[in-house]
């Protein structure tokens, strides 16, 4: 009989596990929002290097506008809003002609703003999918792709360790790999592990520098092999893709990119100058969010101390007594409670009722 109700038992967790779960969710939200609390519209800040962007399909059904966190919470609360995670060089549209003022001509929009992603054009989460497939963002076009639609010719799988954690830093989709074909001139160290394979010898423009085995094994610096040296015809991992295979790149791969004047001009011409901008990467975006979170927590701690400093001696004693009463009541409850049963909302309510009764007796 017990087995019949085994599946109906509610999952339990400790208070520490519950608190840790809340903190993890708060951290994840801070990382996505870049530490933005959503209090003020970012329109006056112009085109921001990176910020969280949302698309309101209620106000702009064709998906040709995006708004910041503050506007998604205040101006578009209750609307059909699509969360786009982050976009670079984007200015909040809530203040332009799509909603009132001149348009932001510098903004770029793709089918994500309509709520569709990947080459399959499906929404996320996909209501028709039996299981949601993890998606990866291209660091060039910023579209999102299902893992099984990445176009990886080498192994067909995203490199991960034994625990399933990713062994790559960033991803470049098949379409964007064409203007980024110069990356094949760089050492093998820029590729994620599955990409490091025996390279193909290839001459650049007939009489240009030769991409040798040593180059792909990291014995030559990436600073010596920038895109100004020419374009490669072959690939280090797949001779059939001809520069159209998606790229999965290793940690810190951007640090290897040449930043000479010729290469910088090449990046600008191809519209990929952000690759040598140290503040553009998601890692830096998340680091900024972590610093803001730490500053906010320190401010909160300081506010608590300042509040205590405003109290007189009697008020401080009352607060300490209240904390002691709460501790004692919780301890008494845990000592008398059956550990085999889950704690219900009625149990918690009973704790506070007992504290209120005790407080009334003291008064």
From TrEMBL:
Short name of one Pfam family: zf-UBR
Where, if anywhere, are coiled coils annotated?
Answer: 275-302
Q: Which GO terms describe its molecular function?
A: ubiquitin protein ligase activity; zinc ion binding
Q: Which organism is it from?
A: Spirodela intermedia
Segments of skewed composition (Basic and acidic residues) = 220-232
Q: Residue limits of the UBR-type domain?
A: 39-123
Protein name (record)? UBR-type domain-containing protein
Region of interest (Disordered), residue spans: 202-236
| GO cellular component, as recorded | cytoplasm
Question: What PANTHER family does UniProt report for this protein, alphabetically?
Answer: E3 UBIQUITIN-PROTEIN LIGASE UBR7 (PTHR13513), E3 UBIQUITIN-PROTEIN LIGASE UBR7-RELATED (PTHR13513:SF9)
Q: Where are the zinc fingers (UBR-type)?
A: 39-123
What UniProt keywords apply to this chain's record, in alphabetical order?
A: Coiled coil, Metal-binding, Zinc, Zinc-finger
- What Gene3D superfamilies does this protein's entry cite? Zinc/RING finger domain, C3HC4 (zinc finger)
List, alphabetically, the CDD domains matched: PHD_UBR7, UBR-box_UBR7
């Amino acid at each position: 009989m017990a087995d019949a109700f085994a599946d109906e038992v509610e999952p339990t967790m400790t208070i520490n596990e519950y608190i840790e779960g809340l903190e993890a969710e708060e951290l994840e939200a801070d990382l996505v929002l870049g530490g933005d609390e959503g209090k003020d519209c970012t329109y006056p800040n112009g085109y921001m290097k990176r910020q969280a962007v949302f698309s309101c399909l209620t106000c702009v059904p064709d998906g040709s506008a995006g708004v910041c966190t503050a506007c998604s919470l205040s101006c578009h609360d209750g609307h059909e809003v699509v969360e786009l995670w982050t976009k670079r060089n984007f200015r909040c549209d809530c203040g332009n002609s799509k909603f009132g003022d001149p348009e932001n001509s510098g903004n770029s929009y793709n089918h994500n703003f309509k709520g569709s992603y990947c080459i399959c054009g499906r929404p996320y989460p996909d209501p028709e999918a039996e299981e949601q497939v993890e998606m990866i963002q291209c660091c060039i076009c910023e579209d999102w792709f299902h893992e099984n639609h990445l176009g990886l010719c080498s192994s067909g799988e995203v490199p991960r360790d034994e625990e399933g954690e990713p062994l790559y830093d960033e991803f470049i989709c098949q379409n964007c790999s064409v203007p980024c074909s110069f990356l094949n001139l760089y050492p093998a160290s820029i590729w994620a592990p599955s990409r490091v394979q025996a390279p193909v010898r290839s001459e650049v423009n007939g009489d240009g520098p030769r991409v040798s085995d040593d180059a792909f094994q990291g014995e030559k610096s990436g600073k010596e092999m920038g895109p100004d040296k020419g374009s490669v015809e072959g690939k280090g991992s797949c001779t059939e893709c001809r520069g159209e295979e998606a790229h999965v790149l290793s940690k810190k791969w951007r640090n290897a990119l040449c930043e000479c004047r010729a290469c910088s001009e090449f990046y600008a011409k191809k519209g990929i100058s952000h690759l040598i901008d140290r503040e553009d990467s998601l890692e830096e975006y998340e680091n900024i969010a972590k610093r803001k979170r730490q500053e906010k927590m320190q401010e909160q701690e300081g506010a608590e101390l300042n509040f205590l400093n405003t109290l007189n001696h009697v008020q401080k004693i009352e607060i300490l007594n209240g904390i002691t009463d709460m501790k004692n009541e919780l301890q008494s409850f845990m000592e008398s409670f059956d550990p085999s049963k889950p704690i219900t909302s009625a149990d918690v309510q009973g704790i506070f009722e007992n504290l209120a009764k005790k407080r009334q007796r003291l008064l």
